[in-house]
Amino acid sequence: MKQSPRVLGRPRHDENAKPTKDIVLETATRLFIKEGYKNVSMDDVAKACNVTKATIYYYYPTKGELYTSALIAMMDRIKLSILQILEQSKPFKERLEQLVEIHLSATIDIDMKNFMKEAAINLSEDQLSQVHASENRMYQTIERAMEMEMDKGTIRKGNSTFFAHTFMALMSVGYFKDGDGNRLFQTEAIAAKEIVEFFWLSVQV
């Protein structure tokens, strides 16, 4: 039986290998984290993946689309991690501490503020809308947890959106370094304890 010709430009696919599209996205994300949007070209991504530039363009027609996908994938992973921690049965305050510690440890090399700044400058309105929708889904995971704890009486009644955004803003303090590069907190565990304690004072019943 004659084999159907490949669609023009479609990369060859090994059924036992990791999908090329996933490899491209993971590699590009690492490059964007390390070098920033402007300093990473599609050619750089192709070389790092050991594929042709045509392969990159087959999956991601523009660098903006690749950057959008990288941001969304990153926030989706963060959302999943948040959900897994918050669904545990341990006391809410302990879950929040674990969330901060794990989040800081896993994202210490990721400057989300800079990622979003570069997105605002370089992405189209539609791409930005996709990124913000993913960001909102991440916050909504925390909002729902806040609402559940309000209903249980663990924390005081209030605006869950405000609580969630305040908590995430406080968490970002864990990345702070002074002009000499010294961290505000020596370890993620210390940061988690201090941040959650500060947050807890404002939401406790």
UniProtKB/TrEMBL annotation:
It comes from Lysinibacillus irui. Residues 41-60 bind DNA. Transmembrane segments: none annotated. It comes from the Bacteria. Residues 18-78 form the HTH tetR-type domain. Gene3D superfamilies: Homeodomain-like (1.10.10.60), Tetracycline Repressor, domain 2 (1.10.357.10). The keyword Cytoplasm does not apply. Keywords: DNA-binding, Repressor. This is TetR/AcrR family transcriptional regulator. Pfam families: TetR_N (PF00440). InterPro entries: Homeodomain-like_sf (IPR009057), HTH-type_Tx_Regulator (IPR050624), HTH_TetR (IPR001647). GO terms for molecular function: DNA binding.
